[in-house]
Structures are given as structure tokens and as C-alpha cells.
Amino acid sequence: MASFGHILVCLAVFTHITGSLAFLEGLYCGLDNCYEILGVDRDSSKTEITKAYRKMARTWHPDMQKSQEKKEEATLMFQKIANAYEILRDEEQRNDYDYMLDHPDEYLANYYRYYRRRYAPKVDVRIVIGVTITIVSAIQYWGAWNNYNTALQYLSKEPKYRIQAMDIARKEGLLNTGKKKDRRSKEEIRNEEDAIVRKVIEEKMDIRGGYRRPKITDILWVQLVFSPYYLVMYIHWWLRWIWKFWIKREEYGDEEKLYIIRKFMKHGSTAWDTVSEDDKDNYLHLELWKKEKFLVWKQKQEDDMKAKLAENARYKSYRRYMKKGGPGQMTFGPE
């Protein structure tokens, strides 16, 4: 009987310790039970919890107390009541709190759930991603238009493009070439010419590559939305290439030849768009889609570039500078 009594005592002590472990300082309601603070139980509905909170809040509101001592006591109690209500009215926090009550020994898991819920962003991640993509797309589109306008402004002042644009404008009667005296100031005439030149360059001349007009299809949002379509088209293109040129051994067309040349030159689509049609025709004439001919052509281009640099006075000066030690050399005045 003595040994059985000791067992009962140990079980009682263990039960008391286990129950106390369910409440951790700094978590949820601390060492108090959130349900007991509001006078409800774990089976209470959200409506019942709200009613209990309002009733206790009226009772323990600091403004309802007369003495300073009672107000201080009520303030602490009111804070506990509000904290318990915030935890139990939120379904996810309440589930985490119930889990802690049922698994008091899982300290790390309980701490993790509490702080994850407390400091995790309240906004839906999908909304954050959507807003971020929208902002990036807007900046991207604005930047493209800004670059385009800057390029037009530069081209309208570049003599080569300005002369071509003025010739087109005269042929189409956009400029005032009559003999009647123009009474406007030189500045007004100049501004009108600039506007006409800009319009001609934009609408009548071949501007591609980095100078081309921005398209709505280039922004990130559209690219993401149509990415499945682009993927299907890319797979279809590759399957067609394999079938026509690897299996059936057909001859390359001009489009395929230019594609191979572009890959050899390591040009992106934007850089390739800046290549003139005359240059592309010349590449086809030289049969640069054949790797051996492309390598010979590339070596000749590099040799010509080296020869031009060798004759360049500034490059000669730079080579002498590098031979003397480059940026790390010590100098005591001009040579």
C-alpha cells in the first residue's frame, strides 16, 4: 500500500507539472489560460467569446474605476482580456493555442508557431507578388518609352538621320518650301522643323533594335501571361527544325540561314534588329551559316580591327602607357 501511495503522489506531481508546462512566459496569455481569462471554455463559439469579451471589457475598463489603485489593477486586467480576445477570435491563432495546450512538451514547435504567426506578413503573398510584378512592368514600360524618346531626340539632331528626314519631309510637302516670306521667328521655324523631323524619323524611317518603339507585349506581365504560348511555339519551332533539317535533310532557307548566322555572332534579338538588310544580304552572300566560312570571316574581322587599332594614335599611346605599368605606374610629370 505504501508503494501504491507513492505512485499516486508521483502521478499527481507529474500531472501538475505537465499542466503548468502548457503555459509559457511570453507566449499567448503567458502563465494564464486565455479561456479562463474570458470565462469561456474550448468549446465556446466565436460569438460566445465576443460576448464574454464585451462583458468583461465593460467591467474592467479603467474609466469605470474610481480610485487610482483600482484603475491600475483594471488596466492590467483589461490588457489581459484584450490580449486573450485577440488570440481566441482569430481562428489560426486559436488553433495554435489549442495545440500548445494539448502538446505542452513541444517547446520549440510552440514557440515557432507563435512567432511565425505573429511576425508573418498579414497580406496574401499572391497579392504581394502581383503588385510587385505590376510595379516592375510599369517601370519597365516607362523606361522603354523614356529611352525611345531619348533616342528620337538624339537621331533628330544626328546629321545623317536629320538630312534623310528633311529630304523625306520635302518630298511629302511637310515643310514650307514656298517663296512666300515666313514671318515667324527663327526659333519657331526651328521648333517646327524639329517636330517634323522627329515625326518623319518615327513614322517613315527604319528604326529598330534599341531605338524601336516600345510594345505592350514587351512588359513583364504580358510576357508571364503568354509564357505558356511562347513555350509551345518554341517547342513547335524546334520540332519543325529537327524534322525538316535533321531528319529529312532539307536545304536551309534564308530565314534559317540568318538564324544560324545570328547564333554564330551571339547576337540577341535586339542587337540583330540593328543589323541592316544590306549587311544581312552580304552575310548570306558570304555563306556565313557554314561554320568554317564564318570562322574565316570572323578571324578576318578581328585582324582588320587590330590593324586599325595599330594605326590609331590614341591606341598607340595607350599601349605605351600599359607597357610602362598601366594604372599602377609611378610618374613624376609629363613625358
Automatic annotation (TrEMBL):
InterPro entries linked to this entry: DnaJ_domain, DnaJ_domain_CS, DNAJC25-like, J_dom_sf
Domain of life where this protein originates: Eukaryota
Membrane topology: Multi-pass membrane protein
Keywords: Chaperone, Membrane, Signal, Transmembrane, Transmembrane helix
Residues in J domain copies: 33-101
PROSITE patterns listed in its UniProt record: DNAJ_1, DNAJ_2
Protein localization: Membrane
Entry keyword annotation includes Transferase: no
GO terms (BP aspect): protein folding
Signal peptide: 1-22
Predominant subcellular localization, coarse grouping: membrane
GO CC field: endoplasmic reticulum membrane
Membrane-spanning parts: 220-239
Alphabetized CDD domains for the sequence: DnaJ (cd06257)
Similarity remark: Belongs to the DNAJC25 family.
Matches recorded under PANTHER family: DNAJ HOMOLOG SUBFAMILY C MEMBER 25
Name of the protein in its database record: J domain-containing protein
Organism (species): Pinctada imbricata (Atlantic pearl-oyster)
